[in-house]
């Protein structure tokens, strides 16, 4: 009899004291072209959510992640956003291709649901649609080129080559790189594109060689095609310095481009010596047994930012969360030391323009930070 | 001029790869009439075979290559058994096995995608990353290796079809299935062998190209399309046609990228335009089959 | 008369259902109906007339982009934009159809495949006109006579398109035109010998179905209010082919079944098997072709007959 009473009391208190979870939606790509970036990013996000739950959740409630796979297909992406909203999420995190994030915006704008991408870097995401419910904390293409140029300022570049691929992000970054270069008074003497599926970059590199640039800027984001560029560069014995977008910061290059990338500089949003980074890597390894790298940090920072906003809002009301996120100031794993994410003056791109670092490949290893910010 | 000679070497190497894929299609189309778009995925599987044996377990290159080729032949034989033979035996229209094979494209690609991490994987060079100067021509070791291996393969198949009894029976089946069966040629064995051969050749192509482009699960579709374009240009009738088509396509692509005065992005349209032009004006390709 | 009533009844049913659905289900329902419309048109081209073409989905894109560019880049009023959009689809279809009458079987398939890819290249390189890689967003359907059509009312528009397309293709099928198409599919030489103008029928079929696909595309443009190149990639052309084959080529009911099944399947598979869902999908498609080469409708027929 007493055990029954006890059980009833326990059940009763469990029901009374357990609060409904806070539902957060995640749209990621598990099978399509964005998988190499979405997968580690989402793993970092999931780890972050579990960490938050272990510490008691947000406002005393646990996070429940509803994860959907959009296969990098933007039309499915928009339908999934609607599905998540119908299921009662208070926030949607977009961890897939840039056009997919864009397409989800038409839905979140209409449904007045907060949405954020912690990893897309296309500048147009916050400018093409006037959606006050959308934020972007990935490092923008314009910030990348500005940081690279600040570092290269001492080199007195007069004419450079620009090379990218025909992916949508590669083209977008290419546009912003070109604009940044021309704004600094540097002439772009060669502009080449390596199409997806190419078996060699020789013709394009020959054209670049013929233009005699002081340096070459790489804006492409397709790994295999970038490796072709490095191969042709080595084969022709070219010597001008290479400066690359943040795509080179992905660790896969250390295996597929072995022996090819010594001395290449690239922008990154990850300073491996930053205390938060060291703590994150240790905690991730301990919890999952696997190594983490910079991509995991994007997802982790994403969920942390959302948690911050909900905490500051004090409730799960979408309008309050929106206002809170707009005012957030948070120092995360990504970014240079001391960088905080913030959205001043109503802007919705939150990565600090001075928050990127320039690193260089030493041998095959990602080396030290050699420049910070845009000063 | 030096640019052109360098491009000549790299275009020849790429052309040989396209030619091998075209040959794979040809080996299956001639006796059966079946267009197998899965050859691109077969090339990818061959490349990943290289990742496992050569990168991960660091086998001797020749041994690894031979094993991958043998494995791909088995894959081809199995594909025919599973996706083609039941339909042919039931007298289904020719479109049915073509579509079943299209479905297999998805199966192959996803099987690799879920078995390996999503990033591209490195495949080692047999002779390392170096440059060879051969008279006026200069190119990477790998380019010369690709050309040498491809020429061997093409020579081998040419001899097979021209001189050997087996090869002649293939030709007979290609010309007239019913007559060939009446003459005692075992149709189903010819089909099995053609699929095994096609898969082996495609796998070899993947293995040869992957040290340059790395092995990744999306590499199949572009190769399948380039190989098919090469086949249309060269003509389905003769083995040499596949090589010729591959070389023409590759030279057009690379020369256009280097010399054409149009924006870089448009050069991807070159192979497509070529394909459409050939289809409209010369659908049988450049080389006609022997009468 | 009862025929027209049946179509009307179907329309009322399909359109009315949308008023009882949540936003998410409405979205899926709309896209499903668009795919069924495309499948019906493709079934006529491929299943009934025997033309293996991979350009159907490209015309979907041409229609969508045309209407958006006309309305929002060139600021043409809506009714004229619709007419011009249809005209563009017809012109491009004719430009492709007339030379393709010389091509048979897989040559036609290849040429239309190349067309589909060329379309994507043009979209990507189109700069400010097509919005390049990012496409065009930030627009919505203009008001018609001051009325904003949205939500379930727009779904009703899509239902009307579906029923209208079905009715048109049905009538055509049950006329001399349909018989001519089937004759060409089964044996073009025999058809010519019987007096059918093979080339002209082929051109008409291609142009008609491509124009229908284009109109469907124009309606799609206002479903997500975004058009960009990844939406119109060639993978979808293959999916359309699979839908018609798995359902049963040559039969309208087959196209409907195939479209419904293959469109909804990923939504059910994804939560069940996680990220293996594409693999399972591929296996199911191969299995379906092996088990039922005449399509699922063929199985149904066999069952009915036994």
Structure in words:
The complex is a heterotrimer of chains A (375), B (291) and C (306). Chain A has 2 domains: 2-139 and 273-342, Response regulator (Rossmann fold), CATH 3.40.50.2300; 142-268 and 357-372, Response regulator (Rossmann fold, 3-Layer(aba) Sandwich), CATH 3.40.50.2300. Chain A has 12 helices and 14 strands. Chain A has helices at 2-17, 35-54, 74-86, 98-111, 141-152, 168-183, 202-211, 223-235, 253-256, 275-288, 294-313, 318-326; strands spanning 22-28, 63-69, 91-95, 115-117, 134-136, 159-165, 187-194, 215-218, 242-244, 265-268, 329-330, 341-342, 357-362, 365-372. In chain A, helix 9 links the parallel strand 9 and strand 10. In chain A, helix 5 (141-152) crosses helix 6 and helix 11 crosses helix 12. In chain A, 60% of the residues are buried. Chain B is an all-alpha fold and 291 residues long. Chain B has 11 helices and 2 strands; from the N terminus they run ααααββααααααα. In chain B, helix 1 (2-32) packs across helix 9 and helix 2 crosses helix 8 (187-213). With 306 residues, chain C is mainly α. Chain C is 75% helix and 0% strand. Chain C has 14 helices and no strands. The interface between A and B is large, with 37 and 39 residues.
Compose a concise summary of this entry.
Chain A has 375 residues and is an alpha/beta fold. In chain A, 43% of the residues lie in helices and 18% in strands. Chain C folds into two domains: 2-232, no CATH class; 234-306, no CATH class.
Write the layout of secondary structure elements.
The complex is a heterotrimer of chains A (375), B (291) and C (306).
Chain A: H1 2-17, E1 22-28, H2 35-54, E2 63-69, H3 74-86, E3 91-95, H4 98-111, E4 115-117, E5 134-136, H5 141-152, E6 159-165, H6 168-183, E7 187-194, H7 202-211, E8 215-218, H8 223-235, E9 242-244, H9 253-256, E10 265-268, H10 275-288, H11 294-313, H12 318-326, E11 329-330, E12 341-342, E13 357-362, E14 365-372
Parallel strand pairs in A: 1-2, 1-3, 3-4, 4-5, 6-7, 6-8, 8-9, 9-10
Antiparallel strand pairs in A: 10-13, 11-12, 13-14
Chain B: H1 2-32, H2 39-56, H3 61-89, H4 95-115, E1 131-134, E2 137-140, H5 141-163, H6 165-175, H7 177-182, H8 187-213, H9 220-234, H10 239-259, H11 269-281
Antiparallel strand pairs in B: 1-2
Chain C: H1 2-17, H2 23-48, H3 56-73, H4 78-100, H5 105-125, H6 127-130, H7 152-173, H8 176-186, H9 188-193, H10 198-220, H11 235-247, H12 252-273, H13 277-291, H14 296-305
Helix pairs in contact in C: 1-7, 2-7, 2-10, 2-11, 2-12, 3-4, 3-5, 3-10, 4-10, 8-10, 11-12, 12-13
């Amino acid at each position: 009899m007493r055990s029954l009473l006890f059980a009833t009391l326990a059940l009763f208190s469990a029901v009374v004291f357990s609060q409904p979870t806070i539902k957060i939606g995640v749209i990621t790509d598990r099978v399509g072209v964005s998988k190499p970036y979405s997968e580690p990013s989402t793993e970092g996000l999931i780890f972050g959510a579990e960490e938050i739950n272990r510490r008691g959740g947000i406002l005393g409630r646990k996070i429940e992640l509803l994860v959907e796979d959009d296969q990098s297909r933007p039309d499915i992406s928009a339908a999934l956003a609607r599905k998540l909203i119908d299921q009662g999420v208070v926030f949607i995190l977009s961890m897939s291709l840039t056009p997919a994030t864009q397409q989800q915006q038409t839905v979140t704008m209409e449904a007045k649901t907060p949405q954020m991408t912690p990893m897309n870097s296309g500048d147009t995401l916050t400018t093409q649609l006037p959606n006050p419910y959308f934020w972007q904390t990935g490092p923008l293409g314009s910030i990348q080129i500005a940081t690279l140029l600040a570092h290269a300022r001492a080199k007195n570049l007069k004419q450079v080559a620009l090379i990218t691929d025909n992916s949508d992000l590669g083209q977008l970054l290419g546009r912003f790189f070109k604009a940044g270069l021309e704004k600094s008074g540097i002439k772009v003497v060669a502009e080449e594109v390596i199409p997806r599926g190419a078996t060699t970059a020789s013709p394009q590199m020959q054209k670049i060689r013929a233009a005699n640039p002081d340096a070459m800027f790489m804006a492409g984001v397709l790994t295999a095609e970038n490796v072709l560029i490095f191969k042709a560069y080595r084969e022709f014995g070219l010597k001008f310095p290479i400066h690359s977008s943040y795509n080179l910061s992905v660790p896969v290059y250390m295996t597929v481009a072995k022996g090819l990338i010594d001395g290449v500089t690239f922008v990154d949003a990850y300073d491996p010596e930053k205390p938060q980074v060291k703590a994150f890597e240790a905690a991730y390894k301990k919890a999952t047994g696997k190594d983490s790298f910079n991509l995991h940090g994007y997802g982790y920072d994403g969920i942390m930012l959302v948690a911050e906003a909900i905490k500051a809002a004090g409730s799960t009301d979408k309008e309050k969360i929106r206002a809170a996120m707009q005012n957030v100031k948070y120092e995360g794993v990504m970014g240079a030391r001391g960088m905080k994410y913030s959205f001043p003056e109503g802007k919705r791109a939150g990565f600090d323009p001075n928050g990127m670092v320039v690193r260089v490949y030493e041998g095959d290893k990602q080396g030290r930070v050699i420049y910070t910010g845009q000063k | 001029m030096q640019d052109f000679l360098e491009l000549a070497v790299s275009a020849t190497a790429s052309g040989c790869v396209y030619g091998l894929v075209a040959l794979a299609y040809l080996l299956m189309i001639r006796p059966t009439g079946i267009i197998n778009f899965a050859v691109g995925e077969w090339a990818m599987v061959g490349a990943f075979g290289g990742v496992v044996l050569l990168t991960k377990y660091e086998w001797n290159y020749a041994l690894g290559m031979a094993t991958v080729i043998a494995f791909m032949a088995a894959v081809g034989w199995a594909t025919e058994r599973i996706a083609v033979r039941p339909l042919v035996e039931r007298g289904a229209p020719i479109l049915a096995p073509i579509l079943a094979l299209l479905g297999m494209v998805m199966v192959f690609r996803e099987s690799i995608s879920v078995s390996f991490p999503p990033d591209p994987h490195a495949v080692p060079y047999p002779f390392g990353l170096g440059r060879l100067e051969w008279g006026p021509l200069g190119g990477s070791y790998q380019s010369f290796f690709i050309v040498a291996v491809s020429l061997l393969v093409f020579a081998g198949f040419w001899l097979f079809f021209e001189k050997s009894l087996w090869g002649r029976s293939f030709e007979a089946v290609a010309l007239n299935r019913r007559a060939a069966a009446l003459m005692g040629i075992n149709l189903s064995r010819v089909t099995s062998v053609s699929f095994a051969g096609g898969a082996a050749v495609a796998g070899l192509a993947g293995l040869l190209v992957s040290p340059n482009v790395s092995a990744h699960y999306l590499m199949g579709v572009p190769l399948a399309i380039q190989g098919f374009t090469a086949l249309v240009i060269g003509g389905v009738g003769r083995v040499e046609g596949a090589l010729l088509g591959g070389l023409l396509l590759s030279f057009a692509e690379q020369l256009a990228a280097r010399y054409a005065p149009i924006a870089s992005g448009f050069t991807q349209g070159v192979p497509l335009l070529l394909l459409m032009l050939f289809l409209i004006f010369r659908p049988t390709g450049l080389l006609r089959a022997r009468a | 008369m009862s025929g027209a009533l049946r179509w009307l009844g179907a329309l009322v049913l399909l359109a009315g259902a949308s008023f009882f659905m949540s936003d998410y289900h409405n979205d899926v329902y709309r896209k499903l109906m668009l795919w069924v419309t495309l499948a019906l048109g493709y079934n006529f081209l491929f299943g009934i007339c025997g033309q293996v073409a991979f350009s159907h989905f490209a015309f979907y894109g041409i229609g969508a982009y045309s209407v958006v560019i006309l309305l929002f880049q060139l600021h043409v009023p809506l009714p004229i934009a619709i007419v011009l959009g249809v005209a563009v689809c017809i012109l491009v279809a004719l430009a492709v159809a007339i030379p393709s009458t010389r091509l048979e079987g897989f040559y036609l398939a290849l040429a239309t495949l190349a067309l589909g890819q060329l379309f994507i290249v043009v979209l990507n390189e189109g700069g400010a006109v097509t919005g390049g890689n990012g496409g065009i967003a930030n627009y919505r359907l203009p008001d018609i006579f001051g009325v904003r059509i949205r939500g379930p009312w727009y779904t009703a528009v899509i239902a009307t398109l579906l029923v209208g397309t079905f009715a048109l293709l049905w009538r055509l099928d049950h006329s001399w035109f349909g018989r001519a198409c089937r004759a060409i599919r089964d044996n073009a030489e025999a058809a010519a010998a019987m007096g059918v103008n093979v080339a002209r029928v082929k051109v008409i079929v291609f142009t008609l179905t491509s124009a229908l696909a284009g109109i469907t595309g124009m309606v799609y443009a206002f479903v997500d209010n975004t058009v960009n190149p990844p939406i119109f990639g060639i993978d979808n052309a293959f999916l359309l082919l699979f839908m018609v084959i798995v359902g049963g080529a040559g039969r309208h009911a087959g196209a409907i079944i195939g479209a419904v099944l293959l469109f909804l399947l990923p939504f059910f598979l994804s939560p069940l098997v996680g990220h293996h869902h594409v693999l399972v999908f591929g296996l199911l498609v191969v299995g379906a072709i092996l088990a039922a080469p005449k399509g699922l409708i063929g199985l149904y027929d066999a069952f009915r007959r036994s």
